[in-house]
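Subject: ceramide glucosyltransferase structure
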Amino acid sequence: MSAFDPADSFLLSLSRAFCSPLAVFIQIQGCVICLILAIGWAFAAYIRKREINRIKVGMKGGNSFAFLCHDINELEHSNQVNLPRVSIVMPLKGFGEHNLHNWKSQITSLYGGPMEFLFVVESMEDPAYHAVINLLADFKAFILNFFTVASLPGLTACSFEQDDVDAKVIVAGLSTTCSQKIHNQLVGVEKMHKDSKYVLFLDDDVRLHPGSIRVLTTEMEKNPEIFIQTGYPLDLPSGTLGSYCIYEYHMPCSMGFATGGKTFFLWGGCMMMHADDFRHDNYGVVSGLRDGGYSDDMTLAAIAGAHKRLITSPPVAVFPHPIASDLTFSRFVTVTIQLFYYIYIHADFDFSSRYWNYLRKQTFVLESYISKVNWLMNRALFSTHCYLSWGFVAPYVMAMVHVAAALQLYMKGYSYGETTCTTGGLLLASWLAICTFTELLSMWNLTRIEVQLCNMLSPEAPKLSLDYYNWSMIFVAMLVDNFLYPISALRSHFSQSINWSGIRYRLKNGKIDKIERNKEKGPKFTDLGGKHLYGKKVATPKSSLLGSLGRSFAHWHQPKKYDV
């Protein structure tokens, strides 16, 4: 038998090296990571499925509004007049393709109690300012009747009508001591109604269900010990690799929000809190956010942990989150090559990939902290996440080498007996493939159940569908996202600065120390919504709110991906 070619010899040597005890451990570890994720998603799916079954049982029992509340008697007028006042604070920045629909879902809540909506912008030049003004003008021109007696059988005395909406647009001005989002939130809290019992913070990329505010408020009323109630998004990828990377990044975190109750996790996109905690600065919530705060959810989660306060996430608090259709990953190769150079030499270099900017934001929050304990926890998260990310990717690199070596042996006619590593390597690769399939199956099942739950919680909306998820792209996104995470984390650690929404924040001792604004050098678009950051005008919506609601009801039973 002829000797191996140099290239074949190198490939077989590499495959043999990947059969060493350390390499075998790394590959087995990758299998274990896949199985742990699969088990976690299976548990989360069980919690969400249990809520679906509850809604189905309620509807079979005659409660056509089971998607709103467990007991239909809660919808009686005598009960609704006693509901507490809620102030909904929405910090806005820019205007994107999904914002209008999201805002409509927020202001058309079927809560039943007194509410006010506070849209807070940085300045009147923000495109969001004019978009909200147009939306509210459109909304106040109609009497809204979402569900009539005729549309839902089994009910003879209940209908929901709202002839006006208590909404304000507040100009907060520029932040000087904290992130612009936190500044907008605190200004909104200062302007909220004096009788508000609860305050609900919502991001502009949150698409609420009609009963979401009711569910959150009911849980707060049942258990006054709750410090914060939260939820989590169900990402609706647009089809690009970048959007699938966002989806894949969120999925492991979704386990912590599908507990059916107590959790240690907090998502800044949806947070309901006691209004008095802000009026009286209880536990230092105001000062902790105002004095150098960068991330609202990480700061409040740290405060909750320090004071042993309760955070909960209701099982129905999962919200559709359409990702911008122009969130592309076309520069991934270029970005990857440049990363290794700029991470140490040019700390101020900004990559144009929106996904990369998003990932930078997620890793940058671990550089902010409010106490020594918080710093230690963030360092632990930093180290663990980086280790597990590359620990997840490395086995696939090794598996590709094993498969490539085996193919070379087969195609060139070498005898399998001439190497002792190929069989063992293929066995490890086979186990990794089985574990990966199990992981993707569990992820698919959880996504399927959350899609079903969202459709039940918003029966008036166009139906979401699982058919548009590309699972081959999701697998690639898993590798890309986990490969880039440690690089992003290292860059955040060494630079201690980030450009987000056109503003550069610099940290010192875990708090914002310097804020720089430069429209000329900053990005024109940002975040997952692909939003326009600057400009004094936006186009007035061509269709009225009433018209859009009419179209929603007309398509009640027609499955669609999601409304754009």
